Amino acid sequence: MIAGHTRVETAKAASEFPAPWMRFTSLSSYVLGCRQVELRPAVYSYQGVDFEDLSQVNATILIVDPDDSGLSREEITGLQEQGKALIAYLSIGQAESCRSYWREGWKLNPPHCLDAEDPEWPGNYWVRF
Question: Quick one: pLDDT at residue 48?
């Protein structure tokens, strides 16, 4: 992630965040180019949040699943105007059949980069590098 010693709290430990949120609490600052950037509260939500949730949460860095959140360009701009930075979650180790990039024909004729389906996660396929 951005910082090496990041502690993750679930919503039970950080009561100000609704259930789908995890809060990264040990982020302080990092250097971007020649400029130090202050990192205020950062939250991660893999699923189950929308624009209203994201606009109300007290955090400046939001890590979200773009396929699940369904944010429009206007909503992303609105969050940025609130001073929030959005980072998109993307798994690079597995391709998921529920994702917007997935092509239905891949089940019968997969591209060379797809490997076997993960038996523990149906619809997820290992990616060859």
Answer: 79
Q: Residue range 54-76: average pLDDT?
A: 87
Question: How is residue 23 written in tokens?
Answer: 């809060």
In whole angstroms, give the CA distance from residue 40 to residue 59. Answer: 7
Give whole-number Cα distances, 76 to 1, 10, 11, in Å.
Answer: 22, 25, 24
Band of residue 63 on the pLDDT scale cut at 50, 70, 90? confident
pTM: 0.62
pLDDT digits (tens, 9 = 90+) for 96-110: 998 989 999 998 999
Query: Tokens 């773009």 appear where?
Result: 66
Backbone angles phi, psi at 121, to 5 degrees: -135, 85
> Tokens in use for 107?
């089940």
- Per-residue DSSP letter, 41: -
Measured CA to CA in angstroms, residue 34 lies from 29, 30, 31, 37, 87 at distances of 13, 10, 7, 10, 21
